[in-house]
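Obj.: predict assembly geometry.
Materials: sequence records (below).
Method: joint structure prediction, all chains together.
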Amino acid sequence: MRNHKGITRRQFLGSLAVASAGLSLGDTALAEEEPKRYAKLHDSTKCIGCKRCMSACKRWNKLKVDRFEELTDRETDLTGHTWVVVNLTRDIKNGEDLSYLHWACQHCQKPACAGACPVKAIRKMPEGPVVIDEKKCIGCRYCYQSCPYKVPRFDFGKRITRKCTMCYDRIPIVKPACVAGCPVGALDFGLRKDVLLQAKKRVETVGGYLLGEYEAGGTDFLTILKTKPEDIGLVVAPKKVVSEDLDKIRITSSGFLGAGVLVGLMYIYSRTGEGE
Amino acid sequence: MMHNITQTGNTNSPAYYIWISILLACIVLAGYALVMSLLINMEIFEFSLKIPWAMLVSNYVFFVGSSIGLCIVSSLGYVFGMKRYEPIGRRGVFLAIITIIFGMSSIGFHLGHPERAMIYSLLTPNIRSAMWWMTTLYSFYIVFIVMGYWFLARVELTKIANSSTGIKQRIYSLMVLGKRDESHESVKKDHKKSQIVGALALISGLLALLMEGAVFGHTEARALWYGSYYPVYFLFSSASCGYAWLLIATIITYKVKKEEISGKLKNLIFEMAKIFALLLCVGLLFTSYKLSSGLLDPIKSKSIMLLLKGPFSLPFYLFEIAIGTVFPIFILLYSAKKEKIGGVLTASIMVLVGVFVMRYDFVVVGGVYPLFSPMGRDISVLLPSFFPALMEIYIVGGIIAACLLAYTLGVKYLPLKEESH
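Observations (raw structure tokens):
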């Protein structure tokens, strides 16, 4: 009787517990194992600073070209119509050690901007890109303030916030414009798990730092740096998800407490000296 | 400008017309800035591309906070039933209405697409966003506060409607929505309803304000704003703003109209001055907590140092600490003891000026760090100036002028004094 082929009651209950535990872990676990998640990789040890990625981005996305911005070594900042920049960075400790850094939206796996947008104009696509719906954006710039890298920039002409879309209209069939435009292979694109593996190997070889594996809870844009980000004056996100929902609730609840105290004080005050 | 107010009378004196013309001129300048922003580019509002939240946002925070503060103070009278506070109830609620409306217009000018904000807040709300909660709660607050004023002023408006003729009568009848019952029963009913609506306005207002603090508090990416501090601080800071607005408006209106301030109201003003000083002391405690906790935090300390020893140190020490908090505390306590109305007025104006500058500092300094700078260069090198752009000042000046104009007209045409109670 006991040697039946089906599962026992104990096994069934056990599997139920495992399944519910898996569900309660939420989408964090699922997101990490997303089979179709793509990522972009930048290897700053290979970059020659030609800024072809910048011009390829502008051409594909039909963005305005500023005067002189594509001159080599000229420091540029992200704007509503410049979604990718290449800047020369200097190791603060070792002033001679220079390298070029390709900088754009990091495409966080848990983007803080999407949680901040009041009208759900920002979404994380299953393939990896974090995309702003330009027909929906109200131009409040809260996404900029919530982004640890200050990436989404306001386009004063269109009155909306714009940023790198990881060319979601090209991938995964065609590589993003910047990757396709790179002449020296300093940019790469592929499935995140493959890209991550490749990046880790490269970091081991050059002895650098891999930016994006854990920063802001993991990003779909990985960067290989020659040195630690702080050494080149880069402010990086903490190695955790930025502006988590639970943290938001914690902060809001302190406000509720404050409001409760204020109303209580008002009540106590209103009971004083009325009889006089 | 304040001098001008004191010159203006209720009768249409030349000073009154000068005052109105100055306000209209400011509004025209704001209109010019607005048209230019539509014709050329919205960039003319921004003094730096790197700080996209600047004076329009700080002005919004200032006005909207003031509105909730006014709601808090006036609700002491008509929600919590403090008879002493009833003389300033209606004025407070009216001021709360105009400050929230002009505060909202400030954010409307700041938004790229305010029309989309209204549509998509309803169609695709993001309940994870504090900003959505804030706008939604403020919408409720506006409805409740307007209803609150209506219940408080209906009988007075009816009296004006009944005693006037022609178009004036029609307008006032429309204002009371045809309910021209002046009986004692209806007055009692209105009082009860104003209490309920006032309580709803207070609840929605406080929730909206704490959500406004949360908009800043939730941004983990901006060290100065992040944390539980601002949702709580905003509540207490706004309450002191409410006291300042009400004291200024009440005292100036009586002075301009050359009316005698009754003994009851005088007592209330000095009592308010004492509570106001107490709130400022609480504010000072909050500021010292912000500084001490901020300096201990390695990331936060950079923005705190911008306030203490950087381009913002002058506004911080002069406006936030001296003019906005410390001097007014002494002036208020002294004036309340010696029963000097002028002192209370001066201190209140100082606080409002201080808070206005402080809100600007808070928004701009908070938005600055951490800054991505590939060459590791200093913030002061990357940003040439922290001073607002001319067009930005025009817009904010126009909003303040519109608010003052609305109050001036409100004093002239609406019942703001409490007489019947």
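Conclusions so far: Strands of chain A lie at 38-43, 85-90, 98-103, 122-124, 130-132, 153-155, 160-162, 187-191, 209-211, 221-225.
To do: check interface contacts against the pulldown list.
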